[in-house]
Amino acid sequence: MMGARMTGLGGAEADRLFQALGDPTRRAILDRLAAGPSSVSGLAGPLGITLTAVSQHLGVLEGCGLASTRKAGRVRTCSIEAAGFDRLQGWIDAHRASWDRRLDALGDLLAEED
Amino acid sequence: MMGARMTGLGGAEADRLFQALGDPTRRAILDRLAAGPSSVSGLAGPLGITLTAVSQHLGVLEGCGLASTRKAGRVRTCSIEAAGFDRLQGWIDAHRASWDRRLDALGDLLAEED
DNA sequence: CAGATAGTGAAGTCATTGCTTCACTGATGG
DNA sequence: CCATCAGTGAAGCAATGACTTCACTATCTG
């Protein structure tokens, strides 16, 4: 029984992913990481928040596969990660099918209405 | 011209969208709406929450263009909306480009100072 | 008309979140 | 060594979020 969803994320995973992206600071971190790897301090500086705060955000981003980090010496280097992104796209693709179907059928009705 | 919305969302809009999708109840509402329009009560029943709660979620979903509602008589009929969905895909496309670029060219460069 | 139905608005509760400070560990370099 | 520098863990705090209940306004229907 393949009860596991191949549609991508289970509920909890989708929660984590969307909630992670729902925070502007976290998206700013990802944007910065998209330009290249960075240390925690390198992220904290421009953002105007503490190292601790960045570290916490990093935890969330790693938790849903949007970023990965590894520590060399006393410096933690953070990079962007594909996995979470792929899951996100997967969720969207899985849902777009049914949504679009419905939207298509609905478009006319709504347009006709005054 | 050139699209009224570039990368789509400004920060605040992305916030609303991702946060809206970050809630399981809201996603459940959307799933149900994907199967066809429904009244507020029709949504509340299966979800096991009050009409008020659904009404609040609906406000959020409308606020970011993921759903639309109209009231006929005393019944509010809710439908899924394309706009928010398109914005979501737009955001993803816009960001996937740079992310993929970085992920593809992933070297072991050290973090750069900004 | 009375009475049920469908939904809204305004609080209020309880948990979560984003951030901070403080105390601390480990590298690193003079 | 000793003084920093980069980061972490644990509390704590203010703000937000997801619900609820209660009171209330329409809107049907018998």
Overall description:
The structure is a homodimer of 114-residue chains. By secondary structure, chain A is of the alpha+beta class. The first copy, chain A, has one domain (11-112): Winged helix-like DNA-binding domain superfamily/Winged helix DNA-binding domain (Arc Repressor Mutant, subunit A). Chain A contains 5 helices and 3 strands. Chain A has helices at 11-21, 24-34, 40-47, 51-63, 82-112; strands at 38-39, 67-72, 75-80. Chain A has a 3-stranded antiparallel β-sheet. In chain A, strand 2 (67-72) and strand 3 form a beta hairpin. The first copy, chain A, is elongated. The first copy, chain A, binds a DNA duplex (30 and 30 nucleotides) through helix 4.
